[in-house]
Design goal:
The complex is a heterodimer of chains A (105) and B (147). Chain A has three helices and five strands. Chain A is an alpha/beta fold and 105 residues long. Chain A has a single domain, classed as 2-Layer Sandwich (Transcription Regulator spoIIAA). Chain A is globular and about 30 Å long. The two termini of chain A are 23 Å apart. Chain B has 147 residues and is α+β, with helices and mostly antiparallel strands. Chain B has one domain: Heat Shock Protein 90. Helix content of chain B is 32%, strand content 29%. The chains are: A alpha/beta (105), B alpha+beta (147).
Chain lengths: 105, 147
């Protein structure tokens, strides 16, 4: 599992790679939080294009990032979800907190 | 209904084994020729059940997680995930979405995912003795036409 960060003005994008579960979530969380603390983005984009699996640990991860961002007035956007990841996201109702692009085919 | 194949294994409750457990069960389920969605449903449910054993049942300790599976001649996969951990005091409460007893960033959605992604789930738990989760899912038969 790895995270690549890209910063473009007020938008920070975290490109997630690999599988997200309870085992991998902590290192992903640290990488995103370090980047968010450094760049204070108005918009944080989580790009799941290269994530091959996610269970509800990923929901905890997204909800935690939402909480941190919303304290500073930042927004969260989710993109690149596979049908499996989108299904887990929809079940959690997370679209009430973040904008989510329709899943890729 | 006849059992045509089965497996059993046990793993330590180390988080590194979450991926191993779901991949192994998915490989066993593959003989039913599931769709990608069906195999992903099984992987996700197993991941939730195994994570519950690690995060809740054994908490700060390391114990064994027993995983077994059966396939029937009616295209049903049944998966049993058992631990000898602390047990669940109130199973009904534990199965409520967003309910969690641990802090951090647990979403409290483990049972909701298992219920939603599988056809059935049964939970048996005794405080101080452990928990058994039974999951089952029917894989729709797919027929191919030759010639």
């Amino acid at each position: 599992m790895s995270v690549d960060i890209s910063v473009n003005g007020e938008v920070t994008t975290a490109y997630l790679n690999g599988e997200i579960d309870h085992h991998t979530a902590a290192s992903i969380r640290n990488a995103i939080d370090n980047a968010a603390e450094l760049n204070m983005p108005a918009l944080l984009v989580l790009d799941f294009t290269r994530v091959s699996f996610m269970d509800s640990s990923g929901i905890g991860l997204v909800m935690g990032r939402y909480r941190n961002l919303s304290r500073r007035g930042g927004k969260l956007h989710i993109t690149g979800t596979s049908p499996q990841i989108y299904k887990v996201m929809k079940l959690s109702g997370i679209e009430k907190l973040a904008t989510i692009d329709e899943c890729k085919k | 209904m006849e059992i045509i194949n089965k497996f059993s294994m046990n793993i330590l409750s180390r988080s590194a084994n979450e991926g191993f457990a779901r991949a192994t069960v998915a490989a066993f389920a593959a003989q039913l020729d599931p769709t990608l969605e069906e195999i992903n449903d099984i992987k996700t449910a197993v991941s939730e059940a195994v994570t519950n054993c690690i995060v809740h049942a054994y908490r700060e300790s390391i114990g064994k997680i027993y995983i077994s599976g059966e396939i029937t001649d009616t295209n049903i996969i049944k998966i049993k995930i058992r631990d000898n951990g602390c047990g669940i005091e109130n199973v009904e409460k534990a199965m409520e979405p967003l309910y969690t007893t641990v802090g951090g960033e647990r979403a409290g959605l483990g049972f909701a995912v298992m219920q939603s992604f599988m056809d059935s789930i049964r939970v048996r738990s005794h405080v101080g003795k452990g928990t058994t989760i039974l999951l089952s899912k029917k894989i729709a038969p797919r027929y191919t036409v030759n010639g």
